Amino acid sequence: MRPLFQLSTRKYEEEIDLIKKAMVDLENTCNVKNGYEIGPPSSAAGWTFFNIQISAEMLDVIEKSGMMEGAIGYRIEEQLKNFLGHFLESHGSNVRIKKINY
User: Phi/psi class of residue 61: alpha, beta or left (left: φ > 0; alpha: ψ in -120 to 50)?
Assistant: First the structure.
């Protein structure tokens, strides 16, 4: 399973660099190579939308390492979305995140 999330922002040029740096940091923390993919952006009504997909290997490390401990949500997909949102926020990002597929 490769979870897919949609991120949205009004400041894509600023946010994409923060997202990439945060995801590289998460890859390093998880000791995983190619742990994520960022899809191409699309714009509508002043917002830019883009997808981020996490690899199965990185998901496995996140779930088993206890990184999601304290993440709010009843189901694992809610917890992962909240964990990822807080992780990106802790790296200075201000994107909105929505689960598409888990």
Answer: alpha
User: Could you tell me the pTM of the whole model?
Assistant: 0.88
In this structure, the chain runs to a length of 102
**Helix, strand, coil distribution of the chain in percent, nearest 5:** 45, 25, 30
**Rg value, the chain, Cα:** 13
Measure the CA–CA gap between 49 and 47, rounded to whole angstroms.
Answer: 6
The CA-based dihedral angle spanning residues 5, 11, 15, 16, taken in that order and rounded to the nearest 10 degrees = 70
pLDDT in tens, 17-74: 999 999 999 999 999 999 999 999 999 999 999 999 999 999 999 989 988 888 888 8
Task: Find all residues with CB under 8 Å of 89, minimum gap 6, and list them.
Answer: none
Range of the domain at 62: 4-101
- The count of structural domains within the chain is 1
59/50 Cα distance (integer angstroms): 19
